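Objective 1.3, modelling of assemblies. Example input:
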Amino acid sequence: MIEALYIEQTVFDHPRSKAIRSRFPQARVVKCQRYSEIFNPKAQNFRLQKQQPSLILAEKFKHFVLETPLSYNIGGQRNYYFSHMLNCIYDCRYCFLQGMYRSANYVVFVNYEAFDSAIEEVACQADEPAYFFSGYDCDSLALEPVTGFIKHILPLFRKLDNAWLELRTKSTQIRGLLEVEAMTNCIVAFSLSPSVLAEALEHKAPPLSNRLDALEKLQRAGWPIGLRFDPIIYCDNYQPLYDDFFEQVFARIDLQLLHSVSLGVFRLPQGFYRNMVKLYPEEKLFAGPLTVSQSMVSYEAALEREMLAFCRTKLLQLMPENKLFICYDND
Ligand code: SF4
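Predicted structure (tokens):
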């Protein structure tokens, strides 16, 4: 799976680097000074690199915990994200990472303990609960068998009674969660799309049916579940498509364990959108009824309102209103 492994000199002998390295005995190992030497150069093609990404092991020095955009919330006032990893093993055509980064290589920051300290510090800053989102620059669980990051971070959140953790994922790598006692302050949030759209756009990600199976297993084990319907994608028959899809999903949901549902339509910062069109000029998604407003590319305002209203009305037939959150991203 990994043919080349770049390891920063300062973490070359780190126990985590050694453990990860041992999983790829065939990989070519290259020492480097700083991960940015491999990750940031301009003359890289994300699409080509995505065919055979390398893994880079690095050390992170600052910005461990950052505030999320305003609309990125699930009921809390204090919202943060952190990224122990950059990039993703899946290849969703709408993913903003391919517009944001020049490289499709995976970066894993192996100094997990520095994330612990930063999270703990932020969590303890106020009495109000803090929400931490882990799946912002990667999928939270997809590479867990290699990184072991979630296994590392869960005990921290077990002792932080003023903090919530969201694991956002399309993955079925849930074994590590099923092996431990469920936590009331850790939400496993599945990003879901109708099968036909998942097959067309969410390349390499597990099919909807497998994600629903994983979700159901976690729910049975007592884990709070999140549903992330974001991005909602426009197509001519989006109404019956999403109508059936929401019914299909909620047939598997225990409303007692449903923590939150979030809903957002397809949207991207304009610069990312331009980069993505260059990478995939033939992609139909980018030829939809899109418009630019405040440097964001999204569906025309009337269509966006119509789609959100339709989905919201349908969802409220299936779930309570206080658990539904709409993401606008115009902040
Ligand atoms: S699963 Fe998420 S992070 Fe991974 S490619 Fe898809 S949208 Fe991007």
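Residues 88, 90-92, 95, 97, 138-139, 170, 205 surround iron/sulfur cluster (CB under 6 Å).
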